[in-house]
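Translate structure to sequence.
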């Protein structure tokens, strides 16, 4: 009888140890068309991929590091207790444009065959949970993760904290526990305690501070989440630049709540008309409502006022456009003008007067020194005199429009007009004090150009139309077109 009881106890223990759930409740996984798997569990993004190579080949390991942009390797080792050839890499990295975000990463690399390895990667913004990582790896090695993985990308229905929600055909999984419907998006994680869920939501709020986004408003608001009175942290973000396009504010609700015995960290978002727009997208309405709207809430019958960026902070730069430009380049004549000179190295400067955040009017000059000069006829009192171009001086005004194409990358277009003067090497027979002793001729200059720069340094290219012959100092075939290109330093 004693042996029968021991046998039954062994069977029960074995069943509990090898049951399908593996104590990973709250995990969701998706498989893409390449066979790669993404999972989410307790704030972890977990990926499983197959890579060509051998686990003992350093080139294979280096290729994996390059693929995942591994910046700082904290440790690299093998774990002898794992009954499979392995290599483990622990690292940390920063997230581009998010200065307060730090990503903890660990990569488990396993030999799959003579030509392939499998990589199980863990990434989290929170503190690492080594016990959770080891449990996921154990289940992976036992081929138990299939239970949690789906090949379906549409989200006709979702299981949210133990409740099935039917969404229809307009929704799709962006990643595990991250669903998007037209007009709204929701992502969430399940945690073993309220404290860990609350830590996760605070980390996400901090990590979402983005150098390309302004925060228009930030406060707490009473909501009802899954039928439970809750407090949501509401943040309204606005993109700083969009290639001249207006973008609506993104309104995000961060919520932590215990739902049906599960501790949920949830991020819900939709675009609104302005910072006071509290209307919720249909997806958000499935899990949340706002019972009492603030007095300042936007009403659809209000006169529309598009939301601008936040007010300027003390000491903050008021204008996006630069105000000073120093340049060095070369004038390259086109057509007949090449008969006078082949090129003219130049220097110049502009001072800007901003009229809007991205617009300015500039006053500037350029001085160019022709090289490879050729003789041409200069007419004085209708008599021709053979001479060469000595110095070219341009004084002009331009209208400029500047856009931020990417972080620290600026794209500028401009157009302008001015006066251009060509001083010759033909000396006057008589001249007054303070007057130039060299003959010159002037004409109108009309031009347009572009400038693309990274931080303070950029490249410019512009076309100039200069009808030199209108002053009757040179022949009509003297030429009238040139391009000017070079480097500009902006402040």
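Result:
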């Amino acid at each position: 009888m004693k042996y029968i009881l021991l046998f039954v106890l062994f069977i029960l223990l074995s069943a509990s140890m090898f049951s399908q759930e593996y104590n990973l409740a709250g995990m969701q996984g998706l498989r893409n068309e390449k066979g790669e798997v993404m999972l989410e569990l307790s704030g972890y993004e977990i990926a499983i991929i197959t890579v060509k190579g051998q686990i003992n080949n350093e080139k294979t390991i280096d290729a994996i590091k390059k693929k995942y942009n591994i910046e700082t390797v904290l440790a690299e080792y093998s774990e002898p207790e794992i009954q499979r050839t392995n290599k483990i890499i622990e690292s940390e990295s920063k997230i581009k444009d998010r200065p307060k975000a730090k990503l903890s990463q660990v990569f488990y690399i396993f030999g799959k065959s003579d030509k392939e390895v499998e990589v199980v990667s863990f990434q989290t913004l929170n503190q690492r949970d080594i016990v959770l990582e080891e449990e996921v790896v154990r289940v992976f090695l036992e081929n138990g993760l299939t239970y949690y993985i789906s090949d379906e990308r549409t989200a006709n229905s979702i299981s949210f904290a133990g409740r099935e929600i039917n969404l229809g055909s307009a929704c799709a999984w962006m990643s595990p526990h991250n669903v998007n419907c037209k007009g709204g998006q929701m992502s969430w994680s399940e945690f073993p305690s309220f404290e860990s869920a609350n830590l996760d939501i605070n980390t996400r709020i901090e990590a979402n501070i983005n150098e390309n986004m302004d925060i228009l408003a930030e406060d707490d608001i009473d909501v009802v989440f899954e039928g439970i009175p809750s407090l949501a942290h509401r943040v309204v973000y606005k993109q700083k630049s969009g290639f001249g396009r207006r973008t609506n504010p993104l309104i995000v609700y961060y919520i932590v709540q215990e739902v049906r015995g599960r501790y949920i960290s949830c991020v819900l978002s939709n675009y609104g008309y302005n910072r006071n727009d509290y209307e919720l997208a249909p997806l958000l309405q499935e899990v949340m409502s706002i019972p009492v709207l603030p007095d300042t809430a936007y009403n659809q019958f209000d006169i529309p006022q598009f939301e601008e960026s936040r007010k300027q902070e003390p000491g903050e730069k008021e204008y996006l456009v630069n105000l000073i430009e120093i340049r060095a380049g070369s004038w390259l004549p086109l057509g007949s003008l090449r008969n006078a000179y082949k090129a003219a190295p130049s220097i110049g400067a502009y001072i800007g007067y901003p009229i809007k955040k991205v617009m300015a009017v500039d006053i500037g000059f350029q001085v160019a020194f022709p090289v490879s000069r050729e003789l041409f006829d200069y007419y004085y009192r209708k008599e021709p005199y053979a001479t060469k171009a000595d110095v070219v001086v341009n004084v002009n005004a331009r209208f400029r429009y500047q856009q931020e194409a990417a972080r620290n990358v600026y794209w500028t277009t401009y157009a302008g007009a001015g006066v251009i003067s060509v001083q010759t090497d033909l000396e006057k027979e008589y001249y007054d004090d303070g007057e130039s002793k060299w003959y010159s001729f002037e004409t109108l200059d009309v031009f347009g150009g572009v400038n693309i720069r990274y931080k303070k340094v950029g490249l410019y290219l512009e076309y100039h139309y200069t009808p030199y012959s209108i002053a009757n100092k040179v022949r009509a075939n003297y030429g009238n077109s040139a391009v000017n290109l070079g480097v500009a330093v902006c402040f």
